Amino acid sequence: MNEKQKQVRDLEEIGRIRLSNNFFFRDFLHSEIATVFGLINVPDDVGQAVEAGKRLCEELLEPLHATFGKVCIRSGYRSREVNALGHRMRLGCASNSFNYAGHIWDARDTNGRMGATATIVIPWLVDRLNDGVNWQAMAWWVHDHLPYSYMCFYPKLAAFNLQWREEPERRILSWAHPKGVLTAPDMPDENNGPRSIYRDFPPLKSSQHPSGI
Prior knowledge:
The chain has 213 residues and is an alpha+beta fold. The protein has helices at residues 3-15, 32-37, 46-68, 80-88, 96-99, 123-126, 135-145, and strands at residues 72-75, 115-121, 150-153, 160-165, 171-174, 180-183. A hairpin with a 5-residue loop joins strand 5 (171-174) and strand 6. It starts with a helix and ends in a 30-residue tail after the last strand. The model has no long low-confidence stretch (mean pLDDT 93).
């Protein structure tokens, strides 16, 4: 077996790792940057990446899947090399130091916290954007129901970064209108938006995890 064949086999094995009931590691490995520039998007520390990815999937993505249906992954895990190139080429990637315990799942942040981020699209929300449902409603729903650390919303398809992290920060930003900070720990309680904004959203549904996950 030559080196290229071994790399394929290794990636196949990593991709088969089940992170939760509905998500496998392969769901998070695709990268347009890696594809175009010929890079291999693979963790240096598979064990830490899997541990962080499981927490992201089990605590955040599975409840969203159970409540709203399909969750589409736009961007998931990034290797240091892939993320650094994306940042250098201005392809929508923040710096590696910012993305440690973010999109770079196999590195802890400067405070020693483990974490993982995925950029997701929820078709349930996309289908309702023309009916007046906005990204703020989803932001507040997640804020009130799930143990996220950070969210950042984008203009297209109401896509957003969703992060699980040890010692969560509970911060929401947006590049979609209106841009800026929706809520953060240092903001007064009165800045927390009216909960009636998501009154037509379904209630949180529990997700079931098969034995061994």
